[in-house]
Design brief:
The complex is a heterodimer.
Chain A lengths: L7 E4 L3 H13 L4 E4 L2 H8 L4 E5 L7 H11 L4 E5 L4 H10 L3 E4 L4 H11 L6
Parallel strand pairs in A: 1-2, 1-3, 3-4, 4-5
Helix pairs in contact in A: 3-4
Chain B lengths: L13 H5 L3 H21 L8 H15 L30 H18 L2 H27 L5 H6 L2 H12 L5 H19 L6 H16 L11 H6 L3 H19 L11 H17 L3 H18 L6 H20 L2 H18 L2 H4 L2 E4 L10 E4 L2 H8 L2 H14 L3 H20 L3 H20 L5 H19 L8 H17 L10 H24 L3 E7 L6 H19 L6 H6 L6 E10 L2 E8 L8 H10 L8 E5 L3 E9 L4
Parallel strand pairs in B: 3-4
Antiparallel strand pairs in B: 1-2, 4-5, 5-7, 6-7
Helix pairs in contact in B: 2-3, 3-4, 3-5, 5-7, 5-9, 7-8, 8-9, 11-12, 11-14, 12-13, 13-14, 13-15, 14-15, 18-19, 18-21, 19-20, 20-21, 20-22, 21-22, 23-24
Classes of the chains: A alpha/beta, B alpha+beta.
């Protein structure tokens, strides 16, 4: 059976945070796939509706990932930052992120981000 | 045509088995979930059945059906034991999709539980269900054999889980705690190797009966801790915590009087601990980890070692977190975390709050460095390097000969070099210095730009900027540094008679106007939160400084209109396939005593309305000619006017 492409991708090297976000997005009606590495994300970004990327990653950082995904023009990137610094917003947008969310991410914030990006969720 | 294989014992074909597959059962669950939502929406306007209450009841029932009791059949059950989904028997949770579905339902419950109106309605609707569960538990306990196997087979495990879920909607925290405590006691009595004493079992039954009879108190404020109780992530949390503990322990294992050097790995561990704790155990502990992260970040940023007290505090916080909720009563854990947080605040570097870093923000305008606060660092990074960020992507390929862009690039490089030196990011400063040397040699010696080398160097520079913005250790590419150094050495050796060319009058005029507008544009950029690249060029007529200032004042209202226009928002630019950085170009030309000024921007927003045009016209100097506004599809908007024989 042909499988449909995931609607949302998550890159977060914390299993707990990744799972929480995945559940939140699924509650919003999205199909979600969590990826483990930047390369995996870049590979699957084309065709995805949106990619959620954690800013603080062990091997790289979310700015770089957002820049590369934006360079490919594959899908909009939502950066998630827990530092609360102003740099994250400014530099994140400059890096190509469509939205920068600050932890803790609420369902309302997620909904607004998805609406901003025009991501249509399943009924 | 081959016949489907039959099972040797049951005689059921593979096709027959597929009808009872976990996927089918999961689909059934999903159908129920959808039906629950549909029926809840249908009841939206009905007074008797308000949406949250109905949804909560249905979700709670579905949740109990999906509870993790492996003894019951359900999803994944063998064919002969398939039952209705409405029964209380639970499915296996070996399928990760089932687990995810449970998560989804629990999160929906969390959301509903944290809404005060929904909480009261849900509590009213769920109260009979909970009392029913507790009565069942009382009967099962009374008839229990007090063995681990009986705990499973009698359905005690399943009913406790259902009671646990229903108790989450108890308005009274005491009731929730009582039920959780009773569940733990019941499990402990069943796990004992020998039969428990009669007094213990009687005590449990008595408490259970009291819990059933206990009236529910009116709803209180929604408890954020419900989220932690709902999230079934303890196993994941424990695994992740163990990993971070392994990383953190050797870092903190130094002598008590030694100072701990904050490193990037330490910061990352603290960051992860803060947010993983927030997700699984929100409250004082998570707050204390966040505080620890902030504190260590400040020390790291200022290149200062952590005092021994902070090290001790981190160790104690790690011990509290690792001990888990079972060993620490909530109150004592909270108190410990708050105490630790207070200690952390005492350790906060006093001079960090108003620390001043000499960053040469105004390096281009005047070489005297201004003293700015820590807040300037984010501003410096986010507002000053539009050209630098874009240059590695497409600038070299398309516009390598554009000398005006090279001017702004060099300005940004020089600013970045000074800023990096001020915040002691030496690798970034070194790379900027090398690039400035390369561009200097190219400009002064007239040799061709080493495109490949510069492209790789700028890619590396942007990578370093990303690392600096994320407060990570910058790690330059050694191969790029070596190549730049070799190129500089070769170019310098081949032309020892190198002379420095004086800037042309046009370059001087353009630079003066750029400087006059830079602060204003930066302010607008901050307000609009849009990256903007300002570009100025002038013809070879000499423009006196006072004329340049007059032009700058005349341009400010136009710049304000252009930059604060909603059409330049990131999403509209992305939709129009434009670069994210908004480019505004200003061209100056002087002909027969008349200065012709054009402002060109790459947005395709609407032209100003007649009223806006009149207002813009009024804001121009008296000597200015009519303001022309044009829209060039595919290119952007152009605004032009003239200044007649300005006074010099």
């Amino acid at each position: 059976m042909k499988r449909s492409l995931p609607q949302a991708l998550i890159l977060d090297d914390s299993p707990v945070l990744s799972l929480v976000l995945q559940a939140q997005l699924e509650a919003e009606g999205l199909t979600v796939r969590a990826v483990g590495t930047e390369a995996e994300l870049l590979q699957q970004a084309t065709g995805a509706a949106v990619a959620f990327v954690e800013l603080q990653l062990w091997q790289c950082n979310g700015f770089r990932v957002a820049r590369r995904v934006a360079g490919m023009q594959a899908c909009p990137v939502v950066l998630i930052s827990g530092t609360g610094r102003r740099t994250d917003l400014h530099w994140g947008i400059r890096a190509g992120a469509a939205v920068v969310l600050t932890r803790p991410v609420t369902l309302r914030q997620l909904r607004q981000a998805l609406q901003t990006l025009g991501v249509r969720v399943a009924a | 045509m081959t016949q489907p294989a039959k099972h040797p014992k049951t005689g059921i074909t593979q096709q027959g088995r597929s009808a009872y597959s976990p996927q089918r059962a999961l689909q059934r669950c999903m159908r129920q979930l959808v039906q629950a939502r549909v029926s809840a929406l249908a009841c939206r306007d009905a007074e008797a059945n308000e949406e949250p209450g109905v949804l909560v009841v249905r979700l709670a029932r579905l949740q109990t059906f999906l509870s993790a009791d492996r003894t019951s059949s359900g999803v994944g059950a063998p064919p002969g034991r398939q039952r209705s989904a409405t029964t209380a028997n639970a499915p296996l949770v070996s399928d990760p999709l089932v687990e995810l579905l449970r998560w989804q339902i629990r999160l929906e419950l969390v959301e509903l539980a944290t809404e005060a109106p929904a909480l009261s309605r849900a509590a009213a609707l769920l109260r009979p269900l909970l009392q029913q569960q507790l009565e069942t538990l009382g009967r099962l306990c009374a008839a229990s054999l007090w063995t681990p196997a009986h705990f499973i087979t009698s359905g005690l495990a399943r009913h406790w889980r259902q009671a646990h879920v229903l108790a989450l909607f108890c308005p009274a925290e005491a009731s929730r705690r009582a039920i959780a405590g009773l569940e733990a006691d019941c499990l402990r009595l069943h796990l004992n190797a020998s039969l428990p004493e009669a007094a213990c079992t009687a005590g449990l039954l008595r408490e259970l009966a009291r819990c059933v009879e206990q009236p529910f108190v009116p709803p209180l404020e929604p408890d954020p801790g419900v989220a932690a109780a709902l999230l079934d992530a303890e196993l994941l949390f424990a695994a992740e915590l163990s990993r971070y503990r392994q990383l953190l322990t050797p870092m903190l294992a130094i002598s008590p009087h030694e100072e701990l050097e904050p490193a990037e790995q330490l910061l990352t561990v603290l960051y992860k601990l803060a947010w993983v704790s927030e997700a699984c155990r929100p409250g004082p502990l998570a707050l204390a980890w966040r505080c620890a992260y902030q504190l260590c970040s400040e020390f790291w940023f200022q290149h200062r070692a952590l005092p021994p007290e902070v090290n001790a505090g981190l160790q104690s916080l790690l011990a509290i977190t690792a001990a888990g909720p079972a060993e620490n009563a909530p109150d004592s854990a909270s108190q410990a975390a708050w105490l630790y947080q207070t200690q952390l605040l005492r350790q906060w570097p006093i001079d960090a709050a108003d620390a001043s870093l000499p960053i040469a923000l105004a390096a281009n305008a005047a070489d005297a460095p201004r003293v700015v606060s820590l807040e300037a660092v984010p501003l410096l990074l986010s507002d000053s390097f539009a050209t630098l960020v874009e240059v590695s992507r497409d600038w070299f390929a398309a516009r390598a000969s554009h000398t005006a862009d090279l001017t702004s690039l060099l300005q940004e490089l020089a600013l970045l070099e000074k800023g990096a030196a001020a915040v002691k990011v030496w690798s970034l400063e070194h790379l900027c210095t090398l690039l400035l040397n390369v561009y200097g040699l190219v400009e002064r010696d007239g040799i061709a730009l080493p495109i490949d080398l510069l492209t790789s160097a700028h890619v590396d520079l942007v990578r370093l900027l990303d690392q600096a913005a994320a407060w990570q250790e910058t790690s330059p590419d050694a191969a790029v540094i070596d190549a730049l150094q070799q190129w500089i050495a070769g170019a310098a050796a081949s032309r020892p008679e190198l002379t420095i060319a004086a800037p042309t009058p046009a370059e001087v005029a353009a630079a003066q106007l750029y400087q006059a507008l830079l602060v204003y544009v930066r302010t607008l950029t901050l307000v609009a939160e849009k990256p903007v690249r300002l570009h100025v060029d002038a013809d070879n007529e000499v423009l006196p400084p006072q004329v340049v200032l007059q032009v700058a004042e005349a341009l400010k209202p136009l710049l304000r209109f252009v930059l604060l226009d909603n059409a330049s928002a990131a999403y509209s630019r992305r939709a129009a396939h434009k670069p994210l950085v908004h480019t505004v170009s200003i061209h100056l030309r002087r002909e027969a005593g008349v200065l012709w000024i054009m402002l060109e921007e790459d947005n395709e927003g609407p032209l100003p309305t007649p009223a806006q045009t009149r207002q813009l016209q009024r804001s121009l100097p008296r000597t200015a000619g009519a303001l022309g506004c044009e829209l060039h599809p595919g290119q952007g908007r152009w605004f032009s006017f003239t200044l007649a024989e300005v006074s010099e």
